[in-house]
Amino acid sequence: MIDTDELSAEEIEAVVNTRMFQKALAYRRLADGIEVLEDEDQVFESLVNSITNQHSSVTTEASTREFFRLFREEVETFTEELADEEEDGGDVDDLRDLVSGGDPA
Known about the structure:
Elements: H1 9-16, H2 19-39, H3 41-54, H4 61-78, H5 80-87, H6 92-100
Region (Disordered): 80-105
């Protein structure tokens, strides 16, 4: 693995601006958002009930819950490498600073 200290600002910017990195970052934020929804029982219950009641193709509340579980797992699978870097004390904060316009130095 390459450490961000080994990369120039131009190289880091080139990586951050790739479609793949942007997609991974968006999916990561989506996975975090779904997890927040699931943790907020009342909000999540309301969301599940609303989707179940408003869409005729959704047959049961259980199928709505299963959709969210499977969707979150899929998103987490796509972003698993980013999560590993965070847990290992990687340079994810530096990359987040770049994405948000902050100065990583």
